Amino acid sequence: MVERISDAEHEIMEVLWEKAPLTATEVADRVADAKGWSLQTVKTLLSRLAAKAVIGTERDGRRFQYSPLVERDTYLAGVSRKFVDRLFGGKVTPLVAHLAEADELSDDDIREIEELLRELKG
Amino acid sequence: MVERISDAEHEIMEVLWEKAPLTATEVADRVADAKGWSLQTVKTLLSRLAAKAVIGTERDGRRFQYSPLVERDTYLAGVSRKFVDRLFGGKVTPLVAHLAEADELSDDDIREIEELLRELKG
DNA sequence: TCGGAATAACTACAGATGTAGTCAGTAGTT
DNA sequence: AACTACTGACTACATCTGTAGTTATTCCGA
User: Fold this and answer.
1) Looking at the complex, does the CB of residue A8 fall below 8 Å from at least one CB of chain B?
2) Is the CB of B66 under 7 A from strand D?
3) What is the pLDDT of residue A122?
4) Which residues of A79-117 are buried (b: 16+ CB within 10 A; e: fewer)?
5) Which residue is nearest to nucleotide C18 (CA to C1')?
6) φ/ψ (deg, to 5) at A113
7) Which residue of chain A is at minimal alpha-carbon distance from B109?
8) Is the pTM here over 0.80, yes or no?
9) Does the distance separating the beta carbons of B120 and A80 come in below 8 Å?
10) How far is the CA of A14 from the C1' of D6 (A)?
11) In CATH, what class is B7-68?
12) Domain B72-121 has CATH 1.10.4040
């Protein structure tokens, strides 16, 4: 079971999933645009993630290199599962149905998903 | 925009979405099995939901009748949107793809979804 | 009418979260 | 060798969350 990752922590993870290892400063640079967090804030989030053993640290002189210890897919699987369980009784179909009815699905989306499902069946 | 509803609060909402209006005691009875919360806890959650204007109260003598002010569908739409935005770049297809690859989709699920999509187009 | 039971309002409190500030050590520069 | 800037470690603090306890009021039954 992957530890709970908060919203802010998740932003950091996305950066590290895209490229790792990175130093705290490098991570801060990459979230600066989107979030405008101070370097200190980023460091706090990195510490918390490291404390949860979701990312690993490797000393590099006076600083650390941070890398994810959890695959993005693994994390997504856990979160998706929880989401579907909590809101749609664990069934994916109602979720898709809901998104469809809420007009979240364009015709293109529908075609894409149909294609995907065809491939799944072999 | 619907206010953020916490996990515990969501449990309460599910009860009220199923049947409303209900008094605090009635709500407590209905979540007792699943969650084992004390009556006080349920009342706190009801107060917080009322403070957020997600449920409404109507005086009934010395007590309150609570009812949802937000439709379940509306709420689900908002939460689903946020979820898909945050984790799948706003695209539903990758979500379905992910669930599929993570073996979260049974053959039956796939058939159901295909059926659903067919209806959507027709 | 009086006392107990029910009920809302208020208070509590620890842990998580978002968002930093401060401090102390170290590496590189002059 | 001394100073400065970078960096991790520790501290801070308001808000949200989960989970109640306490208090004051009010209604119903004896």
Assistant:
1) no
2) no
3) 66
4) bbeebbeebbeeebbbbbbbbbeeebbeeebbebbeebb
5) A8
6) -70, -40
7) A93
8) yes
9) no
10) 25
11) mainly alpha
12) yes
